[in-house]
Design brief:
199 residues, alpha+beta, Deoxyribonuclease I, Chain A, six-stranded mixed beta sheet, two-stranded antiparallel ribbon, 4 helices, elongated
């Protein structure tokens, strides 16, 4: 089950992919701004060794999701934990991710490790949480944030696009919930109405 938090000032819609996928879980959103129609896809792939039929199925499904997203809008953002270590392009999983970037024309905006794993005296760094986009120029900043809540860093991207902010509405009203007509009439009769005649 996926949840996504999106500002109420944005025009957004949840998209339903054309099929269910066996190797990954995803949520897709269409977010409209003044300058673009952005498709944001959150993807999670459970950790599993890439080999044989599973690897072929995963590569096909990941490629299908990205192709589908590119048909939905002019800018695509793929964000999530793919459990593919981008820091090791010589390994099977790192090569798969780099091949996807080349195939789809994506750029990975995250360059520092997103997971630090310590086992005894050995520390292993990996970049398995990615932010991929076919429009890197839309982002003014991206990076990692380490809140020390998990062994994964949080990743973020800040879009340059200007969003129209909602103008505040001021609503004036009078409540007649505790209105007493008799007291009101008495106060009216005691008001100094003659002062108005002086001016």
């Amino acid at each position: 089950m996926w949840d996504a938090l999106v500002s109420s000032s944005l025009t957004k819609k949840r998209l339903k992919p054309t099929k269910n996928y066996k190797t990954l879980q995803l949520i897709a959103l269409e977010i409209k701004t003044d300058a673009s129609n952005m498709i944001v896809i959150g993807i999670y792939r459970p950790p599993r060794n890439l080999c044989g039929d599973y690897q072929l199925l995963f590569e096909n499904e990941l490629s299908q999701v990205c192709n589908w997203a590119c048909l939905q809008g002019n800018s695509v953002v793929v964000i999530g934990d793919l459990n593919l270590d981008r820091l090791r392009p010589d390994n099977r999983e790192g090569k798969l991710l780099l091949d996807l970037e080349i195939e789809q024309g994506f750029t990975c905006l995250i360059s520092k490790p997103t997971r630090v794993e310590r086992r005894g005296t050995i520390t292993r760094h990996s970049l398995i949480d990615v932010l991929l986009t076919n429009r890197p120029e839309l982002f003014k900043e991206s990076g990692n944030y380490y809140p020390a809540l998990s062994d994964h860093a949080l990743i973020f991207g800040i879009v340059r696009d200007r969003i129209k902010s909602n103008k505040p509405k001021i609503i004036s009203f009078r409540s007649f919930k505790n209105f007493n007509a008799e007291t009101f009439n008495q106060e009216l009769s005691l008001a100094p109405w003659h002062v108005g005649e002086i001016f």
